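In the current project phase, we have settled on a layout for protein records. A sample record is reproduced below.
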Amino acid sequence: MKGFGGFGGGNNMQALMRQAQKMQEDAMRAQKEVEESVVEGSASGGMVTVKLSGAKNLLEVKINPAVVDPDDVEMLEDLIVAAVNDASGKADDLKAQKLGAFGGMM
């Protein structure tokens, strides 16, 4: 029987293994880069901004005092949720951009 699984000799199999290992290392490096990145989301024209890590950990919340109304706390809560969702979408976009080439490896 010539070769292994249609890949030819052992040299081709070793080359495939090296290529797979390099792809895995590249994917892990890209994953780390995503996790260490910071994305910012905002709501109401920047009245509320949040920062998330690429791993979607909330890092910072900034609230413009103009939107702080003790009689309308619900609006402020909604703005915070909207800003976090905005940042979360950006984190997803970053992940897709950086890791899309690796398919389902990560």
